[in-house]
Predict the structure.
Amino acid sequence: MEATNRTSPWLITPRPDTNARLRLFCIPYAGGGASMYRAWAHRLPAGVEVNAVQLPGREERFREEPVRRLDDVVAELGTVLAGHTDRPYALFGHSMGSLLAFETARWLRAEGCPAPEFVIVSGRGAAQIPPPWPVIHHLPEEEFVQQVMKMHGTPAWVFEDEQLRAMVVRTLRADLAVVDTYRYRDEDPLPCPLTAFTSPDDRLAPVEHVRAWAEQTTADFKYHEIEGGHFFLRDNAESFLSMLSCELQTGLSS
């Protein structure tokens, strides 16, 4: 039975498990919502409770104003997650979500919360490396739409319906403002293991940039390549979820 967390609209748990051995908090990419992780609850190993993060301004939170600064997102999300660190947990994020997962882990550390068992980043170069794309969140709408389709692979049909276009542009512009205005700050590396996924043909996350995540942990670092372009977790889901399941099984067994 799917449930929105009783204490916060930030979390959706497709299959609540009071006996879960690991809580996996999954953060979406720019423009994405919690629904992208719904199927994972039925495809990841037993003992893993999937908790999909629902950011403001999308899906059932579409009436809320999207957040436009990373520090604001992290502070709100971190406050929510701090109440769920009473058992082992891990953070996963794709693209923009990787940045949020990483910075939320650092925020939780600063607040004295237990460290995650591991952090999993996907489709995004290391936080300390400037991204290989131009700043676009401030562009006029038509130019913004063209750049989004060119850079992020959003299909044209999404922008053909006027109402859908308005919703998508609003959310994407806010999310890309989060990414475009991000400024990395030096801190000690995380004490937990870190795993990074990328596709060899993802020009938004060059292989050498993704490998540089190794600098952000004092524990084990693992790196995996999966075919499928920037959205390999969607377009090559079988391969990705199989590999992710192996990572989680290893974590559960250690």
